[in-house]
Amino acid sequence: MNVDINPSWKPFLQDEFDKPYFKNLTEFVKEEYAKHQCFPPGNLIFNAFEKCPLDQLKVVIIGQDPYHNYDQANGLCFSVNDGIAHPPSLINIFKEIETDVNTPYPKSGNLERWAEQGVFLLNATLTVRAHEAGSHQKQGWETFTDAVIKIISEQKESVVFLLWGGFAKKKAKLIDAKKHHILTSGHPSPLSANRGYWFGNKHFSKTNAILKDNGFEVIDW
Question: Which leading EC class covers this enzyme (predicted)?
């Protein structure tokens, strides 16, 4: 498994890479990618870390699993490659942005443009077997990504954490709420959004207001 990350992360993550669980995880992922179709492509597993350097990170969005259909996952949570149909959760994210910050619905579901502005798009599990949701859970990824959230909490200040849905909300315990901003809401999936737990959360305008108050550039959602 090629750990391709922006150099700003390396001093803080090297300890994790050296731990036995991560070595076991690496072997598991190598074997899975050798025997099965897995996503995202191997060179994009750590894309979130490559596209959003730690020293530029301002916002964190936490997802659960990569998309498990062809050509969708690109290593950023909720994001799909250019030209790929937008999955239901992403459609609802874009609809909320449309009404919240008056931005037109975008053609591309590729969220690299957010990552390049300092939005860290982290899935709790970074790989998945094709068409088998959750197939790489409980192999060590969650240990690693929990450590990543703690590192961000410790090393940064005034980061906006967007925790959508029950799974992401559980990560609040890893974050120092005295020095960071935590916004929670229902998940953007249709099941949650259609029950009234997503639309109207105004997380995108709220995030920009917090960033502005702290002297940071706002995000062009």
Answer: hydrolase
